Amino acid sequence: MGAEGYGLAYVAIVVEDVEAVAATFEDGFGLRRSDCSVAGDRRVPLFSVGASALALFAPADPFLDEPTKPGVHHIALAAAEPETAARAHRLPVVPESAAIGLDGARQVILDPVATGGVRTRLCQRPSLEPFTPGPVERIDHLGVASADNERAIAVFSDRLGCPVESRQTDMEVQLPVESFTSDKYGVVYHSRPPVPLGGFRVAFVTVGDCELELLQPIDPSPAGGGVQRGGPGTTRQDRGAVGRFIERRGPGLHHLALKTGDINATLARLEAGGLSLIDTTGRPGSRRALIGFIHPSALGGLLVHLVQRDEL
Description:
The protein is an alpha+beta fold.
């Protein structure tokens, strides 16, 4: 562990069609593939992204311990001595979990109850190909559907030493306006106080060269936030999607966000390559960013969005 917590060794991603998604990572995102060994007799696609990597797995891959749905499965924090690190931070390990990680490196699997639902492994770093930035510069963040931001911060920041980069509240509001129109007195407009529709309490915790984005839903409206099909996303719709994820699967890793220098150009490149998009142009997001989501059906069930933002 360095002075600013643990680095991110890799992110494990589960998709329905590994080779199809791997091809999109290469052709659409401009990432370089270098397969790595799993359990000595199999190989999985591994892509260097910034200082970390993305590893692709099928839903029934035994390396994941049990069959699972598509999405971001787990993160692996780099530790030269995984067992010693887990003991030092008083983090419980899953009993009888696999001790061998990617490329034969040692690993331990932390109990997800202790990490706020975020599946986390401590492992020795796998060998990575040098990374050259292209349409994708690095992982910007990993979205976490959170039931309790403070609980996750207590583990990743207080115990593991990963700093809190920033906190904010994302909220979509409605601005009610009344009009009074008279043939004699003209028109008078009256604005009432904003009505919150839905959003998040957000905390960003730095892990290596990216962040965990802890998203704790806020739903002040009786109707909640449904997803409007066929149109660009909104903060209210995002809140609804994260809320349903927690209801169905519990808190945990929700999506992958990749940093790009020109979000509109990258979205256009992906659309020209045949990928279905939720957002065809960048829209406002956290940390003064422009964001744009790719439809999960285009990436084997994995939810990905692009981020364009200036570093402060």
